[in-house]
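CORE FACILITY INTAKE
Project code: CF-77B
Contact: R.S. (postdoc)
Sample description: multi-component assembly, two entities in total
Requested service: structural model of the whole complex
Turnaround: standard
Below are the sequence entries exactly as provided by the requester. Do not edit them.
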Amino acid sequence: MNPQLLWLIPTLPFAGFLLNGTVGRRLPRAAVTAIALLFTALPALIVAQLWAFMTSAGAPQTLSVASAPWIAITGFHVDFAFTVDHLTLILLGVVTGVGFLIHVYSAGYMAHEEGYWRYFAYLNLFMFFMLVLVLSSSFLLLFVGWEGVGLASYLLIGFYFTKDSAANAGKKAFIVNRIGDFGFLLAMFLLIAHFGTLSFSGVFAQIAASPVSSPQSGGFLTAIALLLVLGATGKSAQIPLYVWLPDAMEGPTPVSALIHAATMVTAGVYMVARCHVLFNRSPAALTVVACIGAATALFAALLGMVQQDIKRVLAYSTISQLGYMFLACGVGAYSAGIFHLMTHAFFKALLFLAAGSVIHALGGEQDMRRMGGLRKRIPITFYTMSAGVFAIAGMPPFSGFFSKDEILYQTFSHGGALSLLLWLVGLLTAGITSFYMFRLWFKTFFGALRFNEHAHGHAGHAAHAHGIHESPLVMTLPLMVLAVLAIVGGWVGIPAALGGLNQFEHFLDPVFLGGAMAPLAETEPHMAELVLACVSVLTALLGAYFAWLLYSRRPGYSKQLVEANGATRFAYTLLDHKFWVDEIYIRGIVQPLLAFSRVFLNGLVDTGFVQGFGTGLALLARSLGAVVNRVQSGNIRSYAGWLALGAAVVIAFTIFIR
Amino acid sequence: MVPIAYYLVLAAVLFCIGVMAFLLKRNIITIFMSIELMLNAVNLTFVAFAHMWHQVSGQIFVFFVMVVAAAEAAVGLAIIIALFRVRQTLNVDQVNLLKN
């Protein structure tokens, strides 16, 4: 296979962006759709070919292609270079495959929206940057993709820019991500200062070659790793920078599926996995990653329990699942994290798209309190979404079971009291996840029909006044494909304890074990793993049971439970207000920052210094001018007088002085 | 034969009278006349030097100056008449429409 083909993978979507972005406004919708789909399908085909090549016998473990130097100064240079290894392959498959499906779905979902061409142009732009991100072979190029997907995310969250809330949500996402990017930048500066290069291979080779026990390099690596984690928490919506993701649901639903569930938000996990050589040398940083992951998983799952907006439930669940991936990376189980990344991309994209289909059917209604009983009305959406719900809840044999279980097992067997605590948190989160997902399922599809067709028929989603209706095939087809993936996607990673081969982990071994093949002899006892799997399934069933009890069997009971006594009421208020984190951030950070900007930057620096400098100069010129102005009286005779005087002086000079 | 210095002193005196009149007078016709006076003072020096050096070029210059002065008088007087018709005054200090 010609490695030059790698260039085409990101540039094709970029060409689609340029075409749709420049002339799309004048093209008919069919042409816009054709351009967008074509330029997403072609990279998917190239990636498929790449898969076939890389997995064939005797194929190299990495495939690289580099351009002429991009930045070249003395002692430091960066190339435009792409590298494909098995980790990249998985990400490429997810991004192009799920991305293409979501493009197809969008053609149906956005069919009646204004700015159709703009939407697809942004979507293709996102694909371009995301592919650059996963293909890059240096921190700097990764950062280019990293920033680019942030830009595309901003544009798409604020797609309905005439809505204040959407525009603000876009800004919030962008600004919160800046904080993370700040950490990423500092990490890159440290890498340049210490290693003199930013290419992955260069940095990791130097780290691997340095002695393990040199304390100075250990602290240094921890600093770099922690700064990278800060960057990852921004992009992957982890504590403390998770606040932008729930608001990002203002964007169109397929965008939430593509960017804020399947691909972009997993960039942080990918980055940590990519830098595993660095993280492995810094146990402290790994512990931080694991704690952040577990805390975020539990925290977001708790918040997901009380949300009423169907998309917000999914948003918090995304944050929570990303926490799982961080937890996996934090205990050194990178392949488990990437495995969950992949299965999560399938089932969460499915859940979002199905939720979009529900919203579409109800003419723009997102509040679950006005849903219910939709099972019979939109059966395809119901069945496909059920696959997603069972997958995320961790029911065997759906994909989420295998990946989540792998993470829990790896956490448990990591050793130490902390890992036991982390495992407990993970297990609790699994139960809560199951609870809120089945809550969503029961509230949306079961019980009585609470949606008033006549009251809502004309409002919301444009041009949909024909009541509840199943979505067109262009939308249900991606749902069906994703549902199949959500069911079978986990079967590539069935652990040995359950009679599988765990092919997924071995597939990634060349990346995470540095070329040395893993010991294939599975001598460890499988008993523990089996017991743990049973425990987590039981927890998930328990969560589902509670959801059934509260939202299907006795629908009013949840309200009674909340009102039971002061403690429960307080707990509910706490969750309902999301622990007041947004308010705390606004009071503690945003407002002081604004005050500082207003008083110091605007008042003192801008008005006082910058503007004062200009005004001062102008004043000087004016006062000087006022003096000189006297000469320019406009009186001809005074000019003539000056002329005569001048002539007299010249004559006097020539006669007497010379 | 009259020495050249006499002519030159006379010309200088005439020129200075012209300059002073130009600077001090407010009537535009007087100013105009003072310009003529200055021109003719210069003419006088030209012919004086031409006579002294026995060369004709100085006298030719004088003809040129007289032609220019005649043209200037024609144009200038026309302007003055037009100005008087509009402003009813010959005082230059009151003709300051373009100022400021």
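Facility notes:
- The radius of gyration of chain A is 30 Å.
- Confidence is low (pLDDT under 50) at residues 457-465, 515-522 of chain A.
Invoice: internal transfer
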